[in-house]
């Protein structure tokens, strides 16, 4: 049922958000071990050491942890008719992410399927991972459920200062485009070399404390660290040296491979006649600016050249929590009301664990469209009356809060859908936003709040409707050009 998560910078919605778009919040005060560390490393861009972590076959790993008997069998995680991920045993049989269940069973008849529609366990482990990384260094930015950026420049500088002059540097793991990275290369790049050791230690810690394996990329920017981390999979790490940036950018098979270029941006670039990354590198900047505006054009050009100065922005607590379900057809008010009740029940439970009080309720629907399956969402939102909202963090008042919220959501629904005519919906999303701490007591209840500080009220982002493509992760999507299919209409 549950196919969604925390939005505006969290969970699945993040599949559509770019890491460059994420909203920086305060880092967790309790978790910041070294108060002298700033929000950014303060280093000039080329001197930074940035890590990107991406867990291996994440949902499948979580299921294998829960049931070790699944470790050695080909395992697929099923959402509706799709295998959203599969373990590496299944990959060895030709099963791939986002394959249909039918095709996967054909490739590998012995494939074991586990339903992955309830994201609770994946979400919990996802936050545990971020929490663990924050305990080493506060500059951690989440990207989706199983990816994190980390700016470890300060850690590396400290190590460098403590390293005797006679030290011979070395790399841990692979070095992109170097079969054997010799000591000469490492002493030319001591910061990245030390970064590769930190990455290895962190991967060890992730394995030791959480039992999870994953890949890491070590580079001078988020863009490059993300690009290089998947060079060797699973459970390996790769460092990218500055002299190989051109090679890695040149290796990308298309514009969509550039982190930051999403579906819509790629379409606009293609309409201008561009096909590959090289085309974008060479396209006249003035013409690019006519289409995207100056700043976005420059940003696009930089990304294509492998240049990305964006800071690692500590993510902080989610600014909203949402839950959604997609289906083939929903066409009666009764079905809608039942679905909303189901979604709000689980969302209210999660909000209770979080401990904050939501001020705003948003309802999103997607109408059937034969031409554009993923877009065309419409949203309405309204304030949650205080007498309803305050029941949520304290447990929902035996279902009273959910009933009142359903009534509120149905009002929003009727503002969007004329029920006197036939309608055909394919998705419903409910979202709590504008989450506010309930005084000092709010901290420390759930794992999220014990780790992250209480977030500031949303800064503008909550006026955008979420556009999660539940079964189609866009690993690298549109950056600063937030593509909004349907702005929320406020209905006070
Ligand atoms: P990924 O990191 O893309 O995939 P993965 O971790 O399963 O495998 P890999 O070893 O290649 O990194 O995505 C993380 C999780 O997100 C994945 O386990 C399942 C989920 N997911 C979706 O819900 N929808 C999608 O479209 C994709 C690709 C993944
Ligand atoms: Mg992964």
Any overview of this molecule?
The chain has 492 residues and is α/β, with parallel strands linked by helices. It has four domains: 37-57 and 121-248, Reverse transcriptase/Diguanylate cyclase domain (Alpha-Beta Plaits); 58-116, MutS, DNA mismatch repair protein, domain I (3-Layer(aba) Sandwich), CATH 3.40.1170.60; 260-304, DNA polymerase, domain 1 (Orthogonal Bundle); 320-451, DNA polymerase, Y-family, little finger domain (Dna Ligase, domain 1), CATH 3.30.1490.100. It has helices at residues 13-16, 58-66, 88-92, 101-107, 120-136, 153-162, 183-188, 190-210, 222-229, 245-250, 263-271, 277-282, 285-292, 294-305, 333-354, 386-389, 400-416, 447-451; strands at 50-55, 75-79, 82-86, 99-100, 112-115, 140-143, 147-151, 174-175, 214-219, 237-239, 320-330, 357-367, 377-383, 425-436, 489-490. The strands form three sheets. Strands 6-7-1-9-10-8 form a six-stranded mixed sheet. The chain has a five-stranded mixed sheet with strand order 11-14-12-13-15, covered by helices on one side. The protein has a four-stranded mixed sheet with strand order 4-3-2-5. Helix 9 links the parallel strand 9 (214-219) and strand 10. It is globular, with a radius of gyration of 23 Å. The chain starts with 12 loop residues before the first helix and ends with a strand. The model is unreliable at 1-39 and 440-492 (pLDDT under 50). The chain binds thymidine-5'-triphosphate (TTP) and magnesium ion (MG). The site of thymidine-5'-triphosphate (TTP) has 17 residues, from strand 1, helix 2 and strand 3.
């Amino acid at each position: 049922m549950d196919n969604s998560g925390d939005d505006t910078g969290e969970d699945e919605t993040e599949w559509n958000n770019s890491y460059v778009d994420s909203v920086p919040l305060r880092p967790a005060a309790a978790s910041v071990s070294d108060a002298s560390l700033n929000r950014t490393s303060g280093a000039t861009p080329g001197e930074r050491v940035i890590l990107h972590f991406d867990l291996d076959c994440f949902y499948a790993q979580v299921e294998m942890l829960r049931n070790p008997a699944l470790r050695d069998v080909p395992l697929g995680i099923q959402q509706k008719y799709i295998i959203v991920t599969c373990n590496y045993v299944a990959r060895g049989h030709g099963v791939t992410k986002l394959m249909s269940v039918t095709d996967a069973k054909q490739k590998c008849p012995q494939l074991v399927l586990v339903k992955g529609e309830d994201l609770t366990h994946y979400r919990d482990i996802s936050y545990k991972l971020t929490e663990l990384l924050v305990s080493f260094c506060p500059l951690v930015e989440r990207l989706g459920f199983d990816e994190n950026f980390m700016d470890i420049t300060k850690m590396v500088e400290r190590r460098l200062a403590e390293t005797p002059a006679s030290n011979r540097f070395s790399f841990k793991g692979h070095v992109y485009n170097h079969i054997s990275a010799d000591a000469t290369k490492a002493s030319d790049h001591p910061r990245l070399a030390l970064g590769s050791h930190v990455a290895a230690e962190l991967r060890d810690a992730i394995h030791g404390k959480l039992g999870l394996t994953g890949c890491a990329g070590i580079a001078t920017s988020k863009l490059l660290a993300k690009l290089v981390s998947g060079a060797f999979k699973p459970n390996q790490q790769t460092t990218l040296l500055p002299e190989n940036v051109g090679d890695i950018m040149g290796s990308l098979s298309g514009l969509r491979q550039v982190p930051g270029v999403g579906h819509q941006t790629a379409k606009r670039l293609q309409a201008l006649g561009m096909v590959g990354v090289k085309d974008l590198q060479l396209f006249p900047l003035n013409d690019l600016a006519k289409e995207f505006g100056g700043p976005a054009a420059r940003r696009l050009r930089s990304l294509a050249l492998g240049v990305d100065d964006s800071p690692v922005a500590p993510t902080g607590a989610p600014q909203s929590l949402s839950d959604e379900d997609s289906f083939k057809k929903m066409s009666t008010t009764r079905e809608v009301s039942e679905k909303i009740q189901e979604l709000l029940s689980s969302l209210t439970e999660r909000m209770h664990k979080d401990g904050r009080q939501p001020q705003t309720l948003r309802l999103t629907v997607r109408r059937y469209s034969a031409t554009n399956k993923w877009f065309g969402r419409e949203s309405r939102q309204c304030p949650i009356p205080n007498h309803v909202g305050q029941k949520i963090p304290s447990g929902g008042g035996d279902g009273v809060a959910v009933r009142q919220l359903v009534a509120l959501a149905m009002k929003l629904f009727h503002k969007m859908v004329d029920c006197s005519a036939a309608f055909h919906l394919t998705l419903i999303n409910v979202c709590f936003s504008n989450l506010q701490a309930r005084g000092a007591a709010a901290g420390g209840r759930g794992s999220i709040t014990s780790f992250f500080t209480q977030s500031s009220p949303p800064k503008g982002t909550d006026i955008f409707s979420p556009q999660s493509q539940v079964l189609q992760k866009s690993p690298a999507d549109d950056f600063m050009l937030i593509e909004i299919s349907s702005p929320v209409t406020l209905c006070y």
